[in-house]
C-alpha cells in the first residue's frame, strides 16, 4: 500500500464522519447503542462485492460474513460462530448466501492448477462440481459453464446452511428465519434470486427436489 493511498483512506474517513454528522449529529451515538440487523449476508471476500452498497443498506442493517467463494463449510468455526450469533442473539430474519459471476475461487475449482494454501479451501468447491459434474459438463461453452457453476455453488451453500444445527434449531423452535441464494453480476450491478428461498425443512425438501431432480 503506497503512502499516498494510505493517507487518502485516512482523509476519506474524516470526510465520511463529517458528512454523516452534517446529516445527523447523533448518528454515531445512536450506532454505538447496539445493532439489530434483520439480515445476515454470507458473501465472497472479493473486494468488488460489498454487501451494504449492493443492497443500499445502512450501517447496522446487515451482519456480514465473507470468505473465498461464499462457502458454508460445517467445520468452519468462524462461519458457524457468525451464524450462531446472527440467528440466536441478533435474531436475524433473513440469511442471504450471495455468489458472484467471475468468482476467482469458483474458477480455480474448475481447473487442476495448484495455487498454494488455498488449494485446501478450493477442494470444498471442487466437491460441489463433482456433485453436479454431468450437468455442468453438458455446457460446452466454458463461460456458460462457469456462470452455471457459480449459481449451483451458491445454491448448494444454502442447502448446507439449512442443514446446520443452528438453522435446524431455529426452525424447530418456530423462529422466523428464511434462507436465500443470490448471485451478483459484476458487470451489471444487479442481483439474481436463484429461487432457493426456504424457511422450514418442508420447504428445503421441496426446493431441493425441484432444483435438482427434475
TrEMBL record:
InterPro entries membership: Carbonic_anhydrase, Carbonic_anhydrase_CS, Carbonic_anhydrase_sf
UniProt family annotation: Belongs to the beta-class carbonic anhydrase family.
Cited Pfam families: Pro_CA
Gene that this polypeptide is encoded by: can
Organism: Flavobacterium buctense
Keywords: Lyase, Metal-binding, Zinc
Requisite cofactors: Zn(2+)
PANTHER family referenced in this protein's UniProt entry, alphabetically: CARBONIC ANHYDRASE
NCBIfam families, A to Z: PRK10437.1
EC assignment: 4.2.1.1
Domain of life: Bacteria
Official protein name in the record: carbonic anhydrase
Reaction equation(s) it catalyzes: hydrogencarbonate + H(+) = CO2 + H2O
SUPFAM superfamilies to which the protein is assigned, alphabetical: beta-carbonic anhydrase, cab
Amino acid at each position: 500500500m503506497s503512502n499516498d493511498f494510505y493517507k487518502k483512506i485516512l482523509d476519506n474517513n474524516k470526510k465520511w464522519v463529517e458528512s454523516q454528522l452534517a446529516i445527523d449529529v447523533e448518528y454515531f451515538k445512536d450506532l454505538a447503542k447496539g445493532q439489530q440487523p434483520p439480515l445476515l449476508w454470507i458473501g465472497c471476500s472479493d473486494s468488488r462485492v460489498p454487501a451494504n452498497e449492493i443492497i443500499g443498506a445502512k450501517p447496522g442493517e446487515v451482519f456480514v460474513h465473507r470468505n473465498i467463494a461464499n462457502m458454508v463449510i460445517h467445520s468452519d468455526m468462524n462461519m458457524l460462530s457468525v451464524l450462531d450469533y446472527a440467528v440466536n442473539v441478533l435474531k436475524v430474519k433473513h440469511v442471504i448466501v450471495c455468489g458472484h459471476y467471475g468468482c476467482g475461487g469458483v474458477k480455480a475449482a474448475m481447473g487442476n492448477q495448484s495455487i498454494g494454501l488455498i488449494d485446501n479451501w478450493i477442494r470444498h468447491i471442487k466437491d460441489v462440481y463433482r456433485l453436479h459434474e454431468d450437468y455442468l459438463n453438458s455446457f460446452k461453452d466454458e463461460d456458460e459453464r462457469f456462470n452455471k457453476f457459480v449459481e449451483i455453488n451458491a445454491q448448494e451453500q444454502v442447502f448446507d446452511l439449512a442443514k446446520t444445527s443452528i438453522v435446524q434449531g431455529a426452525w424447530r423452535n418456530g423462529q422466523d428465519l428464511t434462507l436465500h441464494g443470490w448471485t451478483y453480476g459484476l458487470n451489471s450491478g444487479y442481483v439474481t434470486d436463484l429461487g432457493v428461498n426456504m424457511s422450514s425443512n418442508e420447504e428445503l425438501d421441496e426446493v431441493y427436489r425441484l432444483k435438482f431432480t427434475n
